[in-house]
Amino acid sequence: MGHREDLLAAAKRCLRERGYARVTARDLVAESGTNLASIGYHFGSKDELLSAALIEMVGDWADALEAGLLAEGAESADSTGSAPDGAEGGGGAKGAGEGRRAADTAAADPFARFEGVWEQVIVSYFTSLNDWRDGVEALAQARHSPAVRERMAEGYEEGRTALAPWFHAPGAPPLDPDESRALGGFYLALLTGVMVQQGIDPDRAPTARDLTLALRRIVADFGSAAPPLGTAADPAEGGGAAPDR
């Protein structure tokens, strides 16, 4: 690896061991075996290096979570297939039938799928707890550093484009780019809010069941009042009267 890769790897280790606010430039140099000039040459500053490492760490978390969600989806699809020859008369028929019914329920009920995804998200959060706490610390630093703020803003934009497929129902009509970005932004706002609450007060923070209950209530409150997508009353189409000024 070159100095840039060495510094990123060292920054990840230091973040996990010390936390964002307690990592010094000398820590990074000692951990990476490089020098102070390398930090400035490759990243501009210590804080830019730490924010770059943090974005990679969150990306690694997201990749691992996405792989788990895809694997679970594949298992659900397999369990909904026809039973092997002779299975109906075998001892495993009851278990296979229950597995198929559970998978059918998750596939047919978008609320069940929503809750299942959020269960995985929250469980995975606790395996990367320090990474998320460092992310909150980095937000405070971004207020004072345009370079850090720009780097984190790019990471958030990547998150908006990546999150929508996690929750979009399989088999549903594909999202257009504007819908995908809007939906991803909605889930990113929900994700960051839940993670902050979990980090501060995990005993009372929203659970996957709480989020699903809230979503059911929101959908019920809107009911038939929501216009079909693409109609004149849809805000995305520019319809509706302008608000009073």
TrEMBL record:
Recorded GO MF terms: DNA-binding transcription factor activity; transcription cis-regulatory region binding
PROSITE patterns linked to this entry: HTH_TETR_2 (PS50977)
Alphabetized UniProt keyword annotations: DNA-binding
Start and end residues of each HTH tetR-type domain: 1-61
The keyword DNA-binding appears for this protein: yes
Keyword field contains DNA-binding: yes
Start and end residues of each stretch annotated as Disordered: 73-102, 225-245
Comp. bias (Gly residues): 87-96
DNA-binding region listed in the record: 24-43
Name of the protein: TetR/AcrR family transcriptional regulator
Organism of origin: Streptomonospora mangrovi
Biological classification of the source: Bacteria, Bacillati, Actinomycetota, Actinomycetes, Streptosporangiales
